[in-house]
Write a structure and sequence with these properties.
The protein is an alpha/beta fold. The protein has helices at residues 39-45, 69-78, 94-104, 106-115, 178-184, 197-200, 206-209, 218-228, 247-255; strands at 2-7, 21-26, 29-33, 55-57, 86-90, 125-129, 135-138, 141-147, 157-163, 166-170, 189-195, 232-239, 261-263, 269-272. Helix content is 27%, strand content 27%. Helix 5 (178-184) crosses helix 8 (218-228) and helix 8 crosses helix 9. The structure holds zinc ion (2 copies).
């Protein structure tokens, strides 16, 4: 199994980091988890095009995790030679967002159907809204869902993907909670979006300060990893954006609470499990 941080950014525009998105590849399954800003540029850099995706997993409906879903839908559609639905899994509300996205794409869909004689079908998306504790399979991968705590944003979920005898948890956004601990138990890797509360508190902007109470800090993620006994902690969604010379500092803050391997870095950082 291979995990690639396609986008390590956040809502803050960053010339070096795409929006939140992680790719999980196993022998018989390719999953895109969230689809933030610039996701298809990074997917192409990882050697993949949208029709090669087995499914899209959405952790929650915050725009930074979803803003390029329209691009995934459109490009999956126009790059195929035959009709095939794009499977999308997400929390309740996902179907409404997908319907609204397709509505927004209506002019484009009309133009392309009118222009391309061999394109005779509309894009279709198979949405499955998932509840905590649900399990499902995509290709050869088994996926388990848990509720996360990103309140007041609700509902939000994390996913555990198992295949090839390996496991990875995609934690999404949120503070530590028992559901996440249970989902992470014994996983080979745990990918968590994180903030640096010490740095955020230095910025005298009330709207920025608001983010502290509903995100895991680096230390929170490390403590979750230790409680759950995971092998590798993978940090992403760096707020504020992690400068190249700050990686050691971020890593040290995690290492103070977690003795396993710690991975962080630029977009396209990849780990083999
Ligand atoms: Zn986010
Ligand atoms: Zn969020």
């Amino acid at each position: 199994m291979e995990v690639t941080l396609l986008g390590t950014g956040s809502p803050l525009p960053d010339p070096r980091r795409a929006g939140p998105s992680t790719l999980v590849r196993s022998a018989g399954c390719t999953l895109l988890v969230d689809c933030g800003r610039g996701v298809l540029m990074r997917l192409a850099a990882a050697g993949l095009l949208p029709p090669m995706l087995s499914a899209v997993l959405v952790t929650h409906l915050h725009s930074d995790h979803l803003t390029d879903l329209n691009d995934v839908i459109t490009t999956s559609w126009v790059m195929r030679n035959e009709p095939e639905s794009l499977p999308v899994f997400g929390p309740p509300g996902t179907a409404d967002v997908v319907d609204a996205t397709l509505a927004a794409l209506a002019p484009d869909i009309g133009y392309r159907l009118a222009h391309h004689d061999d394109l005779t079908w509309r894009p279709t998306v198979d949405v499955t809204e998932v509840a905590p504790d649900v399990r499902f399979n995509v290709g050869s991968a088994a996926v388990r869902v848990a509720a996360t705590d990103h309140r007041p944003v609700e509902p939000t979920v994390a996913y555990r993907v198992e295949d090839d005898g390996r496991s990875v948890v995609l934690g999404g956004d949120g503070v530590p909670c028992s559901g996440l601990d249970e989902l992470c138990a014994g996983a080979d890797a745990y990918v968590q979006t994180v903030i640096r509360d010490d740095l955020v508190r230095l910025v005298p902007n009330p709207r920025f300060q608001d983010i502290v109470d509903y995100h895991s800090t680096v230390e929170d993620a490390a403590r979750t990893a230790t409680r759950a006994g995971v092998g590798t902690l993978v940090l992403t969604h760096y707020v504020p954006p992690m400068a190249p010379d700050q990686a050691d500092d971020w890593r040290a803050r995690a290492a103070a609470h977690f003795a396993g391997d710690i991975v962080l870095g630029d977009d396209l950082t990849t780990i083999e499990l």
